[in-house]
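Researcher: Can you fold this with S-adenosylmethionine in place?
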Amino acid sequence: MTSTGSYDIQKHNVTPEAELQRLKTQATIIWKKEARTLKWFGLKDGMSVVEVGSGPGFTTEQLCTLLPNSEITTVELDPFMVQQAQAYLKDKGGDRVNFMQASITETELPDNSFDFVFARLIFQHIPEPVAAAKEMRRILKPGGKLVIVDTDADMYGIFDPPSPSFAIGIDKFSQASAALGGNFRIGRYLWRILQEAGFENLDLEAVMAHSDELGIEPFTIHPLNVDLFLRLVKMGLMTEEELNYFRQSKEEFLNSPSPFVLLTWLMACGAKPAD
Ligand SMILES: C[S@@+](CC[C@H](N)C(=O)[O-])C[C@H]1O[C@@H](n2cnc3c(N)ncnc32)[C@H](O)[C@@H]1O
C-alpha cells in the first residue's frame, strides 16, 4: 500500500494546522475510557507496543504516559506525520519511541516480536483491512494482542437537540470515505476482520465521550466541524446549500438551552494463537 487511503492531512481540513488541532482534541476526549479498556484487554506497563497509523503523536504521548516502562514503535505512512510526531514527542518520552515510516500492510518489522498492537482510527481509512490485520498478527508474539479502535456511522453518537443536517453530514462523510477507499461503517466489521486474519479470544467493547462531562467546546472542534465538509463540497458529494444548512444547524444547536453530544467508538481485541 502506498497511499494513506481515505485520510490525507493535507486535504482533510482547511489547513494541516486545523487538522492537527482536531486530531489533538479527538485524541483527548475519549482517552480515559480507551486507556481503561486497553488495560481490560490486557495492556500492561513494560510490554513492547506497536502503534500503527500513529499520526502526529498525540496518542503516542498518551501511551508513553500510560506505559512509563514500555518501548513503543510507531508505524506511520505519511512522512509529514512522522516528522510532526518526532518534533512533538521530543521532550515527551520520545526517547522510548521508535519511529518507522511504513505501511500497516508492510511494516518490515520482524515476526513474533511484540506484545501489543494499537490501531486507532486507521482501519476505517484503508482499503485492505484484513491484510493489515494479518500483518499485525505476523509481528505479534504468540498470545500478543491487537486492539482496533474505530467508529461506525450508524452508531456515531447522539446530538440533542437533534438536527437532520447532522445525520446528512454523517452520511455524506461515509460516501466520501467509500469514494476514497475507506469505510466509515467499519465498526460492525471489526470482529470479522480479526476472525478472518486468524485472531482468537475476540472481544468487542464500546467507549464513549459526552459533553455533560467534558463541556460542549471540544465537540465543536470534533465532530461539529463545518470545515471538514469543505472537501466534500469540492468532491461534489455535498452541495453549498447542504453545507450552509449544516452551518446554520450547528449555530442553532450551540445556541439551544443545553446542547448535548455523545460520541461512541468501538474497540475490538484479538489474540494471536499460541502456536
Ligand atoms: C485519522 S489519523 C489517526 C491518527 C492517530 N491514530 C490518532 O488516533 O490520532 C489516521 C492516520 O493513519 C495514517 N495512515 C493511513 N493509511 C496508512 C497506512 N496504510 N499505513 C500506515 N499509516 C497509515 C494516516 O497518515 C494518519 O496519520
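Model: Folded with S-adenosylmethionine in place. The chain has a mean pLDDT of 95.
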